[in-house]
Specification:
12 strands; eight-stranded mixed beta sheet; 27% helix; alpha/beta
C-alpha cells in the first residue's frame, strides 16, 4: 500500500477573513463618525441622532455610530445578504445588546429604502459610483432626499487625482495581520471614465488572496457630482478637502492629517479623497 498523500497545511491566505482585512485596511469609522458629528452640529446647530448607511456592507460604520451615543440609531441598507449576515455576527452582536437593538439592517436596493427619515444619509467607499449613467445617479440622489429630515444632510466620499487614470498598484503594510494590502487600478477608459479596480492581500508566508474584492464603476468628477445633486433637488453642496502638511520623514512630501475643511479652490494632487455634503433645503 502506498503512502498516504501528506495533507497540505493551510496558508495564511487560506485562514484569513477578507472582511476583517477590508475593515482594517480601508475603513476608519471612528474618524467618519467624528466628521458627521462635527459637521452636522456646525451646519444644523444640533446633534445628529439617526443615520442611514447606504451600501453598508458589514455595517461597521452604522455600528460605530450607535456605539458613539446611547441615543443614536442606524439603518444599514445593502443588497448582499452574506455580507449583512457577516456584519451582524462580527460587528453588531459583539457591540452588545444595547447597540444591536438600535441598528436595523435591510437587504434591498438602496433606491427602494426611504423610510423612516433620518438626520444623515451616507454613501461611502465610493459605492454610489456604480451608477455609471447620469440618470441613474440623479435618481439615486433624489431617493436620498426622500430619506432625509427637513434639516438632514447627505454625506458622500469621492476620490480622484492625476494618477487615478493610471493603471497602478499601491501597497500598504498591515503589520497586525502580517499582510500587505494592495489597491490596484486594473483599467481605465477615458472615453466614458469607466474603471476597474481590485483589492488583493499578500501574506508573509508568500500566500496571496487575489481579487478579494473587485469593482466596476465610473470615476465621476467633483463638478459632475455637484451638478447632479443640484439636479436632484439639493439646495446647497459643500466640498471638504483634507488638510495636508509636510512629512516628518521627507520635507518634499505632504501627508494627510485626517482633518477636513470646507473649500471652493485647491491645487490638484496625485491622489485625493474628499467629503461632499449636500443640504436638501
Amino acid at each position: 500500500m502506498g503512502k498516504q498523500a501528506k495533507k497540505k497545511k493551510p496558508t495564511m491566505a487560506d485562514k484569513a477573513d477578507r472582511h476583517v482585512l477590508y475593515q482594517a485596511s480601508v475603513q476608519c469609522p471612528e474618524a467618519e463618525v467624528e466628521f458627521f458629528d462635527k459637521t452636522f452640529r456646525e451646519l444644523r446647530g444640533r446633534d445628529a441622532k439617526s443615520l442611514k448607511e447606504d451600501f453598508c456592507g458589514t455595517a461597521l460604520l452604522a455600528t460605530e455610530w450607535c456605539k458613539s451615543d446611547l441615543e443614536r440609531t442606524a439603518i444599514g441598507v445593502d443588497i448582499d445578504e452574506e455580507t449583512l449576515e457577516w456584519g451582524k455576527k462580527n460587528n453588531i452582536k459583539p457591540a452588545g445588546k444595547d447597540v444591536a437593538k438600535r441598528i436595523t439592517l435591510i437587504k434591498d436596493d438602496v433606491k427602494n429604502v426611504t423610510k423612516p427619515k433620518v438626520d444623515i444619509v451616507s454613501a461611502f467607499n465610493f459605492s454610489y459610483c456604480l451608477f455609471e449613467q447620469r440618470d441613474e445617479l440623479i435618481k439615486y440622489f433624489k431617493q436620498t432626499r426622500k430619506s432625509l429630515k427637513d434639516d438632514g444632510l447627505l454625506i458622500l466620499d469621492l476620490f480622484g487625482g492625476t494618477e487615478c487614470a493610471d493603471v497602478l498598484e499601491e501597497e500598504t503594510e498591515l503589520d497586525e495581520f502580517d499582510a500587505t494590502y494592495i489597491w490596484e487600478h486594473v483599467s481605465f477608459n477615458p472615453i466614458n471614465n469607466h474603471m476597474a479596480c481590485a483589492i488583493h492581500f499578500e501574506f508573509d508566508d508568500g500566500s496571496r488572496m487575489d481579487k478579494a474584492f473587485t469593482y466596476e464603476w465610473r470615476l465621476w468628477s467633483i463638478p459632475e457630482v455637484l451638478e447632479m445633486l443640484e439636479k436632484a433637488g439639493y439646495a446647497k453642496t459643500r466640498v471638504y478637502w483634507e488638510r495636508y502638511e509636510e512629512s516628518d520623514d521627507d520635507d518634499d512630501e505632504l501627508e494627510g492629517t485626517g482633518e477636513y475643511y470646507e473649500t471652493t479652490e485647491v491645487e490638484n494632487q496625485e491622489s485625493w479623497m474628499i467629503y461632499i455634503v449636500a443640504e436638501p433645503g
